[in-house]
Amino acid sequence: MKQLLHAFVTKKRERGRVCLLIVLAALAAGFWLGPDAAAPVEAPATGTLAGLHVALDPGHGGYDGGARGQESGLWEKELTLQIALAVEAELLARGAEVTLTRREDLCLAGGDGASRARKREDLLARRALAEAAGADVLMSIHLNEYRDRGESGPQVFYQRGGDAGRLLAGALQEALVAGLEPARVRQAMAGDYYVLQGKLPSVLVECGFLSNAREEALLMDAAYQRRIAQALADGLEQYAALSERLAQ
């Protein structure tokens, strides 16, 4: 495994192929750098989301803490995992199948230290894991920050040029606004995100701003995390219904 990871870092042209081989091997063995990290959790065959396989990616992890709460000092990586687990529970209750890219505080890249190459490898591994698991959609969970501490509100991003991701982002954005009733209402937006550049309809969900003291406190609250989970599940239901109508 160490030799594969070393080859992944040093041979740029082979990164995608090696990463996919690692992911497939991990799935076959029933683990991904941790116990049951990528093993899909199956839900009952009935429910409003039955038949949908969702890959949830708790953003950051390991050496990469992400943003940090201005008041609490908590790292983004801690809260994204808490929120992702709440989302998983809600999706399972509605009949979806769920795969998480991580269930622990870890980075999915080999090596040590922080570098652009290691970050790119980590993101590629998350994307490849979702695809290898056979997921229908990918949601990468994140928290925002900005120098203006007055900025607030959830916002969903999709890969520029991706129609399926755009449809998914719009449905999730609408559901987050309806479910959370934020003071600042934002719109889904296109961007360029490496983790979203795969084959799946994919979105990056910024659940709120850690740089905003009020919103930071909400994001740390288990009840509010459940509201986020419910809103995202509602958005997935809307997306599934829209996709079905468009396919007819």
Characterization of the model:
This protein is of the alpha/beta class and 248 residues long. Helix 1 (2-10) runs antiparallel to helix 2 (15-29), helix 3 (76-93) crosses helix 7 and helix 5 packs across helix 7 (222-247). The chain is 45% helix and 14% strand. The protein has helices at residues 2-10, 15-29, 76-93, 116-132, 163-180, 213-220, 222-247, and strands spanning 53-58, 97-100, 137-144, 155-159, 189-191, 202-209. The protein has a six-stranded mixed sheet, with helices on both faces. It is globular, with a radius of gyration of 17 Å. It contains seven helices and six strands, in the order ααβαβαββαββαα. Helix 5 links the parallel strand 4 and strand 5. It has one domain (2-247): Aminopeptidase (3-Layer(aba) Sandwich), CATH 3.40.630.40. Mean pLDDT is 87; it is low at 1-35.
Topology:
Layout: H1 2-10, H2 15-29, E1 53-58, H3 76-93, E2 97-100, H4 116-132, E3 137-144, E4 155-159, H5 163-180, E5 189-191, E6 202-209, H6 213-220, H7 222-247
Parallel strand pairs: 1-2, 1-3, 3-6, 4-5
Antiparallel strand pairs: 4-6
Helix pairs in contact: 1-2, 2-4, 3-7, 5-7
